[in-house]
Amino acid sequence: MTGSAVMNRAGRILRGVGRAVAVTGAVGVAGFAYASVVERNWFRLRRYEIPVLAPGSDRLRVLHLSDAHLTPGRRMLIDWIRGLDAHDPDLVVNTGDSLAHPEAVEPFLEALGPLLDRPGLFVYGSNDLFSPQLKNPVRYLWRSSKADYNKRRIPDLPWRELGAAMSGAGWLDLNNRRGSVKAGSLEIAVAGVHDSHIGLDRYEKVAGTADSAADLRIGVMHSPEPRNLDRFTADGYELLLAGHTHGGQVCLPLYGTLVTNCGIDRARAWGLSRNGASWLHVSGGLGTSPYAPVRFCCRPEAAILDLVPRS
Q1: Average pLDDT over all residues of the chain
Q2: How far apart are CA 195 and CA 125, in angstroms?
Q3: How many CA atoms lie within 13 A of 293 on its CB side?
Q4: Cβ(87)–Cβ(115) below 8 Å
Q5: Among 7, 122, 164, 271, which has the highest number of CB atoms less than 10 A from its own CB?
Q6: How many angstroms separate the CA atoms of 87 and 175, rounded?
Q7: How far apart are alpha carbons 251 and 307 in whole angstroms?
């Protein structure tokens, strides 16, 4: 082969490599644009019917919200949450990580809007206490974010103001607490734990058999750690609600959730499943960290849980 032929062949190879790199780069840019602009703001309302009530009971509609990770500028998310009141829930449950900015309390209360006039329950997530930090999100593929909080002892987000506002509206604070709430025609025994992801859960404070005289028993938590799920189930709570996982946030077609960022298995990272005798709903959540503003094959969500009598 002559020198000119070698040069021509090398030129063709380099042009081919250049085209491949350009195509790969274009696909990557398009994928990031879709994940950060389109899917991140493509909210959906999931609906489930759960046969958990005693025969003859009236239907009860529960709205489950979680992981808004709200910053003041997210107008689309604020308006979408506010519009959920039109679905006429009997009970609203917020399983935490509502904030992602020191000035997000008022926008979050604006988002809840008329929902605050309804019976409600809430627990905190780690991001209600500690602001998000810039980090490599790929680390979640091999480690939990729990270690990131080991050196952060002093909360820097206004979680007290958030809790006071929801409590002031009549919602029950279930952070390591038990209580009861009237929703629809039903008396509901409730209990919850603070976020296990940062070691603030104290199940021993709520331990014990759930009130057998209640029409329904609900256990609430932010992170669906199996040890707490099993304790709630053993104590007779029939419906368990959690968030935290974001459904994986970045999922793969035909494979699904890559990581759960907690102890629960991938198959139960979002949606409705069973935990022994209890029903478990894990919300895929509505938001993302402002430092990882993408969702892929995992649209942001809230859920309507229509509770109906067992057949």
Answers
A1: 90
A2: 5
A3: 12
A4: no
A5: 122
A6: 27
A7: 29
Query: 125 is written with which tokens?
Result: 């997530």
Strands in 264-300 per DSSP E? 271-275, 278-282
The CA–CA distances, whole Å, from 100 to 37, 269, 297 equal 18, 22, 23
CA 311 to CA 300: how far, in whole Å? Answer: 32
Q: With 0-12 CB in 10 A as exposed, 13-18 as middle and 19+ as buried, what is 39?
A: middle
Please state, in angstroms and rounded to a whole number, the distance separating the CA atoms of residues 9 and 18: 14
**Can you tell me the distance from the alpha carbon of 199 to that of 151, in angstroms, rounded to the nearest whole number?**
13
Based on the number of CB atoms within 10 Å of its own CB, is 176 exposed (0-12), middle (13-18) or buried (19 or more)?
Answer: middle
Q: How far apart are CA 154 and CA 129, in angstroms?
A: 8
286 in Cβ contact with 300 (< 8 Å): yes
Q: What pTM, to 2 d.p., does this model score?
A: 0.88
CA–CA dist 253, 276 (Å, integer): 29
Which DSSP string do the residues of 197-233 spell out, in sequence order?
GGT---GGGT-S---TTSSEEEEE-SS--HHHHHHHH
Q: 3-state secondary structure string, 21-66?
A: HHHHHHHHHHHHHHHHHHHHHCCEEEEEEEEEECCCCCCEEEEEEC
List, edge to edge, every strand of the sheet that includes 91-94: 44-53, 301-309, 60-65, 91-94, 120-122, 172-173
Helix (H) or strand (E) holding 11: helix 3-33
Q: Which residue has the higher pLDDT, 163 or 18?
A: 163
